[in-house]
Amino acid sequence: MSAILVTGGTGNLGALVVGMLREQGHEVRALSRSSAEFPVDLRDGSGLDAALAGAEVVVHCASSPRGGDDVAAGHLIEASRRAGTVTNLVYISIVGVDVVPLGYYRTKLRVERMLEDSGLGVTILRTTQFHDLVAQVTASMAKLPLVPVVPLPKGVRVQPIAVEEVADRLAELAVPVPAGRVADMGGPEVRTLEEWGREYLAAAGSRRRVVGVRMAGAAYAGFRRGGNLAPDRAVGRITFGEYLAAR
């Protein structure tokens, strides 16, 4: 196989994918704005043509909750077409992007559709939220000034999965033959964010109390309905407790 490109190759997920592919003996180009060998800026597409030269497979891990994923995907699609050698563009998405009307999710769904309509070979994997996100949300709310409790959205169930397991699956999918939309991946346990928050705080040695807060809006309602869950695809093995213990 020729070189495999990984966008967001220095990020939380991308760096793991890069490492796994290199351990398997592949030539991997880890793309980022700070890369010495392949500096790429997906915001304007600069550097993509050189990075994609001769590549067959692209694993697209780069993402930003601040917006612009669709613009970045457009640049990547156009550059992949120009390269003429890309046979599989692997994309990591999120369970629920088609049913939970959150802005970030809507953008991820738009990228999925852009890829499907691109004329390129694509593979799309949706997963539930990473353990890291649950920890980050709880930690950030625990730092609120002048708030004696930890407020978390009430009644929102979450099914966190280990980023390592997702990286392993992406490395498995990084082959020249595209697979289309593959089966979703979900974590091994479903609990409310309030319950996960209490487990995180206990592991961190905090005695602060979690309080569930009702919120407004269609996105919150979508989460309350469980649109972000994949209970029939609970294929993850690493529990949140094991993740916390490893930290």
TrEMBL record:
Pfam family, one: NAD_binding_10
Domain of life: Bacteria
Annotated InterPro entries: ComplexI_NDUFA9_subunit, NAD(P)-bd_dom, NAD(P)-bd_dom_sf
Signal peptide from the UniProt entry: none
Residues in NAD(P)-binding domain copies: 8-132
Record SUPFAM superfamilies: NAD(P)-binding Rossmann-fold domains
Protein name per its UniProtKB record: NAD(P)H-binding protein
